[in-house]
Task: structure prediction
Amino acid sequence: MKYLYLHGLGQKPDSWNRVIKETKVSKSSRSLSLSEMLEEKAATYKELYSAFSSECDKENEEIVLCGLSLGAVLTLNYAIDHPDKVKALVLIAAQYKMPKKLLKVQNMLFHLMPNSAFNKMGFKKADVINLCGTMAELDFSDSLHKVSCPVLIACGEKDNANKKTAKELCHYLNNSNFHELMKTGHEANIEAPEELAIVLQRFYDSIN
Result:
């Protein structure tokens, strides 16, 4: 079994390093890069999801997907489209229906930020703005029943923008559990790596 990790916008693959290191499955784990997957492609959600799907399809064995924020959106999308391939799913700070107002405010803030602020993301400013714009219409509400694998849904206690939706997902996904990471904000993999690793390992043990 292969464990694939996908970071959020504003992070890089090494954002998962401390979490992965603390799990027993670190040797079977791989952290993917959003910017590398989009290299030389148009910065749209459709292109990013297509590239992510190709990475998942390369694996010859069952996969466990763990995604945070945008990474969670992509992993949920794949689990809907490929229920037979995904052994288990971890969704951290996930959305299943894009909050249009929040995206609009986020993009307004991106417009005001200097180009240099986007360097750490591995994206150009225009690409980030364009990518977020193409996500506005995403809505998986009518497809959530297609997810057949066990799901762990986690969210930071302080992540007010995503906590309500994360809890809602538990009602829509049949075989799911919710875990709230105390004293933690949006970037749980950076803010609480040890606690997150413990929660992940408990979940991984339950599916093996």
The beta strands are 2-6, 29-32, 63-68, 86-92, 151-156, 176-181. The first strand starts at residue 2 and ends at 6. Residues 2-97+141-207 form a domain with the Rossmann fold fold (CATH 3.40.50.1820). The CA atoms of residues 79 and 147 lie 6 Å apart.
